[in-house]
What does this fold into?
Amino acid sequence: MELAAGCGIRLFQYRNKTGSPRDVFAKAEVLREVAARLDVLFIVNDRCDIALAVEADGVHLGQDDLPLELARNIMGRHKIIGISTHRPEEVTQATRGGADYVGYGPLFSTTTKEAHEMPVGFAGLRDIRPLTPLPVFAIGGMTLDSVEEVVASGANGVAVASAVFDAASIEQTMRDFVRYFPAPSSPLHE
It folds into this structure.
């Protein structure tokens, strides 16, 4: 996280689909402390209880997770709630429901999820951009080769995993992604 923050990344999501709740909590607690020291936003994937327990900045929910309205009741108005969306109607629903941002995709095939929705491509992203004033983070298969058109298609940010972790130079790859997003690097951190 230190290296990424030094490259200009300001929003981090902790995603652990296989760990026990105790293990996820323990790791999230350490990551939260690092994020606070670095003055970056820290979001926990799926788990409102763990996000609150570690005093994360928010939670990111998928379509099969706790409904947005209930999550908002648990998290409160001051915490960030992001929603993964895959279809235009889900974008509209998340916007009307009070999400703070949406993740949209997958834009392309991805190796970080075994079962995922069909890729929506650049056209899918362009189609949903007028549906919401919320920040939109493109998800699924992001690469440096695609990020310029992803931004041109309406994304305010991208969720990246494999493109960074599989890179020959992780630091340079993070810097290359960040240059596509003028400060503040997260539209949620103003």
Notes: The mean pLDDT is 92. The longest helix spans residues 21-38. The CA atoms of residues 69 and 97 lie 7 Å apart. The longest strand covers residues 80-85.
